[in-house]
């Protein structure tokens, strides 16, 4: 478990799995105290059933971790800085009585003489529009899809913790391998869905699938995710 940073993989997932048991048990205490006498609002079980996955635990929405996007910001800032410095130096040179730079005269001539429906004009406009849309998407989306937000404990609602997807997949795969009849398992964790594929060596495939679904549901709940993904299990029988 990591507030904002942490190394991906098995280590970070194991620490997150170990730290979620205490907050889950502490979250039941304040709910019972806040229920109050009858007639003064819903009881704690009713509020838990009515609440969404985003509001369980701390009573507030838990959002994804925002990416700093330092590389993208540095590249955009460097390009803007170079273009602004080049234009400023050329303007100062023109004000000092020197002729304008060749690149600026060529650019001004091209923009003045080429029609609007020219291929190069349309291509440049399309590239500029695509870059603008890409930057807007980066500015308005959180990114960091590999980190799954976890539930905040009721006694510390400002605590934010995240679980690495690869670490969560390793924990779920280890749980799947403990199901009798499963010889191999592959688990992929996404935002809304956990896809598990298992090979069955013995036992009935339907029974193995039911047991595997129950085990993965239980292990997913132990991860204390703010928005628990849905578990989808597929099994296939492998000949001995």
UniProtKB/TrEMBL annotation:
Its keywords, alphabetically, are: Membrane, Transmembrane, Transmembrane helix
Using the record, list the residue span of the signal peptide; answer none if the entry has no such feature: none
Q: Organism's domain of life?
A: Bacteria
Please give the residue ranges the record annotates as the region Disordered: 1-67
Give the stretches traversing the membrane: 71-94, 119-141
InterPro entries hit by this protein? DUF6286
* Annotated ranges, domain DUF6286: 130-236
**What protein name applies here?**
DUF6286 domain-containing protein
């Amino acid at each position: 478990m990591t507030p904002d940073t942490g190394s991906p993989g098995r280590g970070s997932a194991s620490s997150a799995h170990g730290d979620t048991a205490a907050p889950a048990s502490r979250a039941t205490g304040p709910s019972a105290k806040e229920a109050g006498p009858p007639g003064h609002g819903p009881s704690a079980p009713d509020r838990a059933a009515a609440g969404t996955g985003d509001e369980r635990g701390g009573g507030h929405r838990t959002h994804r971790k925002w990416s700093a996007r330092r590389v993208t910001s540095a590249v955009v800032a460097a390009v803007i800085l170079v273009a602004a410095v080049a234009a400023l130096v050329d303007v100062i040179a023109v004000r000092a009585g020197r002729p304008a730079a060749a690149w600026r005269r060529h650019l001004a001539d091209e923009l003045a003489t080429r029609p609007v429906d020219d291929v190069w004009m349309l291509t440049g406009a399309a590239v500029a529009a695509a870059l603008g849309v890409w930057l807007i998407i980066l500015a308005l989306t959180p990114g960091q899809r590999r980190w799954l937000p976890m539930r905040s404990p009721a006694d510390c609602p400002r605590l934010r913790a995240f679980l690495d997807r690869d670490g969560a997949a390793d924990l779920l795969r280890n749980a799947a391998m403990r199901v009798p009849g499963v010889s191999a398992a592959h688990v992929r964790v996404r935002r809304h869905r956990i896809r598990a594929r298992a090979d069955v060596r013995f036992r009935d495939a339907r029974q193995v699938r039911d047991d595997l679904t129950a085990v993965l549901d239980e292990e997913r709940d132990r991860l204390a995710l703010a928005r628990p993904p849905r578990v989808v299990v597929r099994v296939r029988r492998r000949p001995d």
